[in-house]
Specification:
Blueprint: H1 8-20, E1 31-34, E2 39-57, E3 80-98, E4 104-115, E5 123-136, E6 139-145, H2 149-152, E7 202-207, E8 214-223, E9 241-254, E10 257-269, E11 272-273, E12 278-279, E13 285-295, E14 298-313, E15 328-344, E16 347-364, E17 378-392, E18 395-407, E19 420-433
Antiparallel strand pairs: 1-2, 2-3, 2-19, 3-4, 4-5, 5-6, 6-7, 7-8, 8-9, 9-10, 10-13, 11-12, 13-14, 14-15, 15-16, 16-17, 17-18, 18-19
Length: about 425
């Protein structure tokens, strides 16, 4: 099998259009209309991506396969390639009213539709976030389906590829990895932008006013389940619950030097699970730090994340989760990311690097026991060169050239895992913001 990228010439040509396009101005403002009491605003985004990836497996050993986990053929053990087209859009509807007492009432609904990665059998359409808010001199109170404050207030590196590159982002939809743990909720994908299984769950959050560059945010989340549809607790399982998070960030400028930083912490109670002896072994928690500087168009930043007792479903070839209670892992981890960027006029470029690992891994059996596994750490390291060009108000052309290497922690009899994976590719996209 050839190890070159399918369609490389066409993709690179599209990427080179970044430097050939005409300059443009800033993003156009969202349009609005009024009712008797509220001002309505309609905004959102639409994105289309095309990319190709060459992936090479370095396989030490494979399991023979079972009814739940099929064996991997000899052809699948060699180099694989992917050329793919993906797209998504989001519509943001905002209604806001200024009250006589000086406060402001707001509600936001975000509708989203996206095509998922190759090999999936469906396209997702759903309400991504939905909340109501009351703000004033006291700060901002929000109730509803929103991201935790650890995500909303995180500071770190600048990434010219707005859908995300080296950290959890779009480029990972164009590759497979050898990892046993997922990226979005563990140290394999996030540093201080910590989600930890809080997928815009229902919560109450409070943000203080920004004072001398500082702002504090806190939130409480009854359960890590969007729309609270987990029926917690049940004999079949449960979710992380009674979670809280806190974050503080700082944004200021001194003599032309921009400074930004953040610190955050999030913690969950372990899920109730009758088949796991009542509870899983440990509560999950994570904390993170971020720092960045800007000067004369240059941007240097980075962040760090630390994860404790994080649970993940077992993984099989291609990254699909094994939907059984007996195939879960718990581990600790840490992650780092750095980015150097430069912006001038309509042009943005950045070099981004990420490295994360999960270690001290335990296998959770159906009885609730968690014996230690033999050896190894679950690792992911990615470097990406990114560029963007503003074609017109609210219209960007962007590209990411990347290399990602992952290492599985063990050759498991539970999951049919690669031991190593090396992926190199390029993804380009047209992004409309309105």
């Amino acid at each position: 099998m050839k190890k070159t990228l399918y369609g490389t010439t066409a993709i690179v040509a599209l990427g080179l259009a970044i430097v050939a396009a005409a300059p443009a101005s800033a993003q156009a403002p969202a349009q609005g209309f009024s009712s008797t009491n509220f001002q309505f605003t309609v905004g959102g985004l639409a994105r289309g991506y095309v990319g190709g990836t060459s992936m090479h497996d370095n396989v030490a050993s494979w399991t023979a396969g079972t009814a739940a986990v099929p064996a991997v053929t000899a052809a699948q053990q060699g180099a694989t390639q992917r050329f793919e087209v993906q797209r998504d859009w989001r519509l943001d509807l905002t209604a806001a009213a200024n009250l006589p007492n000086g406060m402001r009432a707001t509600t936001v609904v975000q509708l989203q539709n996206l095509s998922v990665a190759q090999g999936s059998t469906f396209t997702e359409s759903y309400i991504r976030r939905n909340w109501v808010a009351l703000s004033g001199g006291f700060g901002d109170v929000r109730i509803g389906s929103i991201d935790p404050v650890t995500m909303q207030m995180a500071q770190g590196s600048f990434d010219a590829f707005t859908a995300g590159s080296a950290k959890t982002g779009k480029i990972y939809d164009y590759m497979q990895t050898a990892n046993a743990f997922g990226r979005d909720d563990t140290a394999l994908g996030a540093t201080n932008n910590i989600r930890l299984y809080d997928r815009s769950s229902e919560k109450i959050a409070y943000f203080t006013p920004r004072i001398e560059g500082f702002q504090l945010g806190v939130n409480y989340t009854p359960e890590a389940s969007k729309d609270k549809n987990s029926a917690l607790p049940t004999a079949a399982g449960g979710v992380y619950n009674r979670g809280y998070a806190a974050a503080v960030n700082y944004v200021n400028t001194f003599s032309g030097v921009g400074v930004r930083g953040s610190a955050s912490y999030i913690k969950w109670n372990a899920p109730v699970n009758a088949n796991n002896g009542g509870v899983d072994p440990s509560d999950a928690s994570a904390w993170g730090l971020g720092l960045g500087f800007t000067y004369m168009g240059f941007d240097l930043g980075g962040s760090y994340g630390n994860y404790s007792d994080v649970m993940s479903a077992g993984r099989i070839d291609g990254g699909a989760a094994i939907a059984t209670l007996t195939n879960r892992f718990i581990g600790n981890g840490s992650s780092y990311e750095l980015g150097l960027g430069y912006s001038t006029g309509p042009v943005r470029v950045s070099l981004n690097w990420f490295a994360g690992e999960m270690k001290d891994i335990k296998f959770v059996a159906a009885t609730g026991t968690a014996p230690a596994l033999a050896a190894g750490t679950d690792k992911l390291q990615t470097i990406a060169l990114n560029g963007a060009y503003i074609l017109g108000p609210g219209v960007n052309l962007e590209a990411s050239l990347f290399n990602s290497r992952s290492t599985a922690p063990f050759s498991s009899t539970v999951a049919n895992l690669r031991t190593k994976q090396d992926a190199t590719g390029i993804v380009t996209g047209i992004i409309l913001s309105f």
